[in-house]
Design goal:
This protein is of the alpha+beta class and 429 residues long. The chain is built from twelve helices and five strands. Helix 2 packs antiparallel against helix 3, helix 5 runs antiparallel to helix 6 and helix 8 runs parallel beside helix 9.
Amino acid sequence: MSLVDAPLPRGHAPSGRPSEPTVRAMEVGQHLIALALTIIGAIRAVGDGVPAAAAITAGLAILAWHTAGTFLPRKTLSPNAVVWWLVGFAAVWIAAVAVSPEFVWLAFLLWLLAGHLLPLRWGVAFSVFVFAVVAIAPILHHGTTSYANLFGPLIGGIFAFGISRGYLQLLHEAAERERLVTSLKLAQAEMSELQDELAVAQREAGAIAERTRISRDIHDTIAQALSSIRLIAHAANSRTEDPAAALSLRQVESLAGDSLADVRRIVAELLPAELEDGALAAALERILDRARDEAGIAVELHVDETLPLLPTEVEVGLLRSAQSALANVRLHAAATRVVVSLIDAGDTVRMDIIDDGRGFDVAEWDQSSTIGASSYGLRFMRNRLRELGGGLDVESGPGEGTALSAYLPIRAADTGATAGTHPGDEEPA
């Protein structure tokens, strides 16, 4: 950082320096102006009868203070330090003007710096003060002045101040453009990640839907037929008195039972891998244990004892939502504790996920999609739940953690089944 871009942290904080060649040219030009005006002032002061040692000392003091200002912003981020440097530079310049009025030419550099480093109101006031010194210096040294000594610096001062304000505006616009380009690149990267996640989710949803359809077809056709064969064979065996027929019927009944068990196993294997044991709670416990082991997060899981058997699509929807939410916690929240609760809410099932992380502004999240990749994750989660007839509630605040509540309806036709069985799978009496 240099004095040229020192004002930018007040309103802009770009990741890098905007318009690098232009800024570098401005820095070099500023140093050349300081060097040229100081040399001219010192030479004219010596020619005006000022002792060479005094003129050279005044010139070196000006150059030393100006050079020190080049490194000042690298040592501190406080805008006040830059302002005080400018005040000190004015004091050194006034001391040099006291040695010789020929150093008043450096007022042009002060006007440039005032327009660049100070707010407009204070910059104007500082420039007026500098002009007052320029106007008074010849009178103090020679007892008189001229219109050229007044109007020349006045016009030059207005021009220098206006040029510096215009360049400052261009510098701010360049910084804003860079910020917008950076935001655009970030948005493109997030959109790419979202598209990848969407493609994976669509393939996953299609695979789950197809597996569910196949399992239902197998259950409604082959499994039901085998169950009927078994029941018929059992009933016929209880009525026959022919030993050979009874043996054949028992064999048919046994073969049908074994085949029915195989079909049930195949249907069960068609469920998503995380739900192989048929328990959403067990799947949640596994991913919480993984979060605890890999990220060191304290985890808790609470499940209502009255929670009924959930339809497959509901279990999968809640499980995917939990995976996405816990991924956000691990990547973005910096949380130390996460509590997951599965709650029986009558006609709906609710899953609450609460963490003690850094949180975020929910109102800003509702209006904007630029707060990070987790923004897209939450939106994707909400859309997925809405497709299943549910929704997602989000409560959070900066530094207050985050609470997510995902809810889905439970169809009445599915709540009457028992775990691991389907209607028509009952054992014969």
